[in-house]
Write a structure and sequence with these properties.
Blueprint lengths: L9 H11 L4 E4 L4 H5 L5 E3 H17 L7 E5 L4 H12 L3 E4 L6 H11 L3 E5 L7 H11 L5 E5 L8 E2 H6 L15 E9 L2 E8 H15 L6 E4 L6 H14 L2 E4 L5 H10 L4 E5 H7 L4 H4 L5 E6 L17 E8 L3 E6 L13 E3 L12 E5 L4 E5 L27 E10 L4 E6 L4 E4 L2 E4 H10 L5 E7 L3 E7 L3 H10 L4 H5 L4 H4 L2
Parallel strand pairs: 1-11, 3-4, 3-5, 4-8, 5-6, 6-7, 10-11, 10-12, 12-13, 13-14
Antiparallel strand pairs: 1-2, 8-9, 14-15, 16-17, 17-18, 18-19, 19-20, 21-22, 23-24
Helix pairs in contact: 3-4, 5-6, 8-9
């Protein structure tokens, strides 16, 4: 079987670009990387990136990680993230992407759920010692055999990936690229609880195609991503669209407004990928004169029910595309109307392919389920991960298998206009930015804090919800939540408002 008969992987896409233009710039670090990680920013050509990817892949092979085993990655939005993902795939591994907000309790749960063999992190990110978090989580996960990281001052027992790059091994693994194999595992929370969502390379590429086709991105674009890649949507919108375009991917670790505009101008970026609210805020000024090279903006909506009521896009010389995100279930993109910059209509049916070509669905399909919620199906959707629970054993009629995933977002169908309006998020699931959790978990966390403590989620226009807490002693409540291994959103809900100015 030769390579021409196999389906593409992310690394195969990378190597196709490498063969065409090895000396072109591939990846650019945030200009404020030194502040975020303590490491100087880098800029790599495709040939330079390829050498690092091969060195990291050799390290994973030499570490004894079997082909198709899971390696967990918790890294910032820097070059190291992209290089590690591609290196893991070159070594035949599956990448589990961990959000940066996760702390010990969530890390341990995800490591055990995926039986991960290794974890990769950075020594510190935004002042947080992530290397210690990884070591502590690994101690509680029986499957972990290898812990490694980038940066200085790594704890004892953590392997330095910088040394592996400086003195690379030549170990390789003879694997034929096959896009049907698992590529990533991301994590979602639905009304049924926490779940791992594995995806193949083809599923991941379908997500990137849905975005690049709708936004009509040309080949060779200079992209700037200010959206964290530690999710299906983040990977599809950044890494996959970059590999499909064959251009340059510059990264911004959210969020520093001045640094972002400086990067966009300095690198003459023509494409920006960012949270939609941030993009709309940039558009409030004279965006075209400030950033004359910018031509395309991809606005990522973690709260897709807010798109319809969002502000119009003002800058006529820059095309805005809304990317609707439904947790880890899937996504679709809709370009804004050129006339007035309002959100484009969401229509049921195939996404990412011309409607006049029957059976040519490239990315996915949008539908209204019998219970009035939004359903997704197609190549990017992982049906098994979202399969409904089996019926009770005494049921006489087995439930028919579903060929779509129910996102649980409430919708209204306008039959006259053939459009869908998303009206409400899933019941019982709270979202704070990209972090999702069950409403009932708030009561459990409050209970652990003792009498008089309250933790609640309040509606927020920008992030969906925000957390607020009240306790007899806020400082002690913060300490207790941190000791439970909960993430900073929970801990900072109990900040003292008077001292914070809020």
């Amino acid at each position: 079987m030769n390579q021409a008969n196999t389906s593409p992987t992310l690394d195969a896409l990378f190597q196709r670009i490498l063969a065409r233009k090895p000396d072109a710039v591939a990846l650019v670090d945030p200009i404020n990387k030194q502040r975020v990680t303590g490491r100087p920013p880098m800029r790599l050509t495709y040939a330079e990136a390829d050498r690092v990817i091969s060195a990291l892949a050799a390290h994973f092979i030499d570490a004894g990680l079997p082909a198709h085993s899971v390696i967990a990655v918790q890294l910032p939005n820097t070059i190291e993230f992209v290089l590690t993902v591609l290196a893991a795939h070159r070594a035949g591994l599956v990448v589990a992407v961990f959000p940066l907000l996760w702390r010990q309790s969530e890390l341990v749960a995800a490591l055990n759920r995926t039986s991960a063999r290794a974890i990769v992190t950075m020594s510190k990110i935004d002042g947080v010692i992530h290397s210690d978090l990884a070591m502590n989580a690994a101690a509680e996960a029986f499957s972990i055999r290898h812990v490694c990281g980038f940066g200085s001052d790594l704890p004892e027992g953590m392997y330095s990936l910088d040394q592996s790059i400086a003195k690379p091994s030549r170990s390789t693994r003879g694997l034929m690229p096959d896009g049907r194999k698992a590529a990533i595992v991301s994590f979602d929370v639905t009304a049924d609880g926490f779940r791992a969502v594995p995806r193949t390379h083809l599923s991941l590429i379908a997500g990137g195609l849905a975005i690049s086709l709708e936004s009509d991105l040309p080949q060779g674009v200079n992209m700037m991503s200010a959206f964290l890649p530690s999710s299906f949507a983040g990977l599809a919108a950044t890494v996959v669209t970059w590999l499909l375009s064959g251009g340059t991917l510059a990264l911004h670790h959210p969020f520093d407004a001045d640094a972002l505009e400086q990067q966009l101008a300095e690198f003459a970026c023509d494409t920006l990928i960012a949270p939609a609210q941030l993009a709309l805020r940039l558009d409030e000024g004279d965006l075209a004169s400030r950033l004359p090279n910018l031509r395309y903006v991809l606005g990522m909506w973690r709260a897709p029910e807010q798109v319809a009521s969002s502000a119009s896009w003002k800058t006529r010389d820059i095309e805005m595309t809304d990317v609707y995100l439904f947790g880890e279930a899937g996504l679709f993109a809709v370009r804004r109307t050129a006339a007035d910059g309002s959100p484009g209509p969401v229509k049921p049916g195939r996404q990412g392919a011309p409607r006049e070509q029957p059976g040519s669905s490239i990315a996915g399909e949008v539908l209204v389920t019998p219970k009035g919620t939004l359903g997704l199906r197609g190549p990017m959707v992982v049906l098994a991960a979202y399969a409904p629970p089996p019926p009770p054993s005494d049921s006489l009629m087995p439930a028919a298998p579903r060929d779509y995933v129910d996102t649980e977002y409430a919708v209204r169908l306008d039959r006259a206009q053939d459009t869908i309006s998303i009206t409400a998020p899933p019941a019982g699931v709270m979202a704070v930015g990209g972090y999702r959790f069950l409403a009932q978990d708030l009561h459990e966390w409050s209970r652990r804090l003792g009498q008089g403590a309250l933790l609640t989620a309040l509606p927020d226009r920008l992030s969906g919800h925000r957390l607020a807490g009240r306790a007899m002693d806020n400082a002690r409540a913060r300490e207790a939540l941190a000791e439970l291994g909960l993430n900073p959103l929970m801990v900072e809900a109990f900040r003292d408002r008077a001292s914070s100015g809020g």
